[in-house]
User: Fold this.
Amino acid sequence: MSKLIMRGVSKAYGATLALRRGDLTVEAGEVHVLIGSNGSGKSTLCKVLAGSVRPDNGEILIDGKPVTISGPHAARASGIGIFYQELSLAGHRTVAENICLPDMPGGIFVDRAALENRAQRYIALFDTVSGEGFAAEAVVENLRADQRQLVEIMKALATEAPITIFDEPTSALDRAQVDRFFEILRDLKAEGRSIIFISHRMDEIFAIGDRVTVIRDGETVGTENIADTNPGAVIRLMVGGQDELAPGASAPPATAATRNGAVLTVANFSGKGFANVGFEVAKGEILGFGGLHGQGQSAVLRAIFGANPSSGGALALSGSAFVPSDPRAAIRRGLAYVSGDRSRDGVISGRPILENVTPIHYLKQKLFLARPSALAERVKPALEALHTKFAGLGHPINSLSGGNQQKIVIARWLIDRPDVLLLDDPTKGIDLSAKADLFALIRKLAAEGMGIVLYSSEDAELLNNADRILVFNGGQVRRELTGADRTRYNLYQAAYEAA
Amino acid sequence: MTTATLSTPKPGGLKRLIERYPFLPALLIALVLLGLNGLYQPRSVSFIGITGLVKTYLALIMLAIAQTYVVYAGDIDLSVGAIVSLVNVVIVVMMEKMGGTGFSVVAALGMGLLVGLACGIVNGIVVAALRLQAIVATFATSIFFTGLALYVMPVAGTPAPATFWRTYGGRFFEIPFVFYAAVLLAIVIYVLARTRLATQLLAVGDDAQAAFQSGLPVTKIRIQGYALCGLFAALAAFCITGDTASGDPLVGGKMTLFSVAAVVLGGSALSGGFGTVVGSIVGALIIGLINSLVFFVGTPSEWQNLVQGLAILVALMAGILVGRRARA
Assistant:
């Protein structure tokens, strides 16, 4: 009898179907790897199991008995422990307190001795690799990133749950720490515990996994024995039948012809979340940033724009040096940045459309006062170019759909043309027709000579629209895909390669 | 765990000290203020002077403690003053109705604790279970509690029975009653700091989402924080009744924001997750010492509020500067 069976689990967030049909069968005493590309639904499946997300449909059986998991507490009671990718630590508490937080020993009063004892058991497991300053009494906030990740691992181990989920537990760990962690996992396996393991490092998956389940577009597409498969086969399963829709479906790459002068040159660029990134964007080129979520793509774009700090490197705009300091300076030098996180970076919520289109115009033209009617004249061509649908410039921006809101934000940059347009996952939460409009516009802007950097978490968008693709992994550019190499298979292979 | 602490690298002894005892800057300020008090009025640092200070400000100390447990979890309670008023009039009326005997005092105090607890639970349910904004929701309940107090005793002035305030102001074996109360308070705080609830409140204040994902019953924990706050507000009401020896349906109102100021002066973060009860006590003492200093220096009455406000601002800034310097 299988330890855990999940059948037909689905979850929708509003109109977006995060998980269509998730199936998963895990045996006792195995490390079961869960793999899938960006937004395929593997994290959602785990969150359903851990009780932090309620599924819309589907059934879950543990030891053959159907269970309802109504919350994190219920999940724990059903014998499920989880390591959270985004960590769930209390920064001001000590390591020991964090490890035992879900289930502190003692009644009304905390049994300090028992707490220290229990924590010490898990701290001792990593004694040789946890590094300086790591102690039961250390305050978590003062630890390094890898040490914090170790605390989260210990916290998951301390649940002693028969089924333990590890959602990308190794992203901040060094080699020795990973090796030690894997030894511990093998011990757990020998005890008959079940481990669900999510990682995007192919070498790790093949080092620790017993079986692998592949999720694609919210659906479980297959489960294989690790011993009977190889990385190439797993990637092909992730890619599915959609492989060859890729090369330049919407437009022929104009790369070679337009390589007549770089509008943006970046060399040895480093900062928080990325290191030694270098590339050139030619006039009229669309350069794609690919790879898994959060491998440094956004961080690079934000740092170029001066919205995030950078620590080193040389940048040049059309040949003249540029030091990113803050967005105002970047805008004056002809950079534009559009983010997919509209509520944080784009939309001025609750204000009229006109006010949402004009802030960059005010800045660039050093306007102090302006007549709305004169502004409206300047604004209209930009909005028309985007096929934006709106009732009137005086209507609040919130009355528009997500796609139209994003068009307004882009139109903001087009009144006074920038030289370089940085697109940071710009189509997040936008409907299909608006996406098509957007990419048609981007191609047109490129044809008119703008240099464009496009990061998209949707691989199809990238493959269809970028002339070249830089694949990021662990904050660095791992591979450059050009011409006929721009296939889904190559993209995944580079993204899942050992960092 | 001394060995572990010693074996870790030392990033400056002062930083470590302040990290462990975040109320140290506040304690320093309190000592400076105490010195200034002594300078202008030598009698204020005598035994009798200190007794008077504790007797007068024990209520604010209690209220600051009450506020701390709520702030631990990242919440705030703007109704603590109203709870003080309500408990104050309830116990005074009850003692009076029952004839002011020793038994009536004990019964009234029990009732007072229940009222405080009930108010706290109401706040907790409104904020944590119904998910209203803590600032606005507790402001609204404060008006409600004040309304109840005015219903119980429409006009201030009913005296508390002599048994009660004579005990509060009196001495046993030559030691003032308030010192016994202070010792008892210290024990209660020491015990409370070791409860599971204290750690859970701080964990919720650190990151409520993370606490929820760790399987903590976040809503229940926040309600318990407010309940504890209500209990300590009731204790504050007992102190103020002992000090003023009468009932007043508006007596606590102006104390609310002083309790918040005391918590901040004591080094706790209003965003939650970080703080100490001892710090809040020191914070309340700082406010008390500033008030008496303003008086001892001989500030003309029309200037007293202005000087008092400036002094609190300076104390806040000094605390932040000292803390920042030490942490950097």
About this structure: The interface with chain B takes residues 50, 52, 72-73, 75-76, 82, 84, 87-93, 97, 101-104, 106-110, 112, 116, 132-133, 135-139, 155 of chain A (CB under 8 Å). Chain A has two domains: 4-244, 246-496. Residues 175-190 of chain A form the longest helix (16 residues). The radius of gyration of chain A is 25 Å.
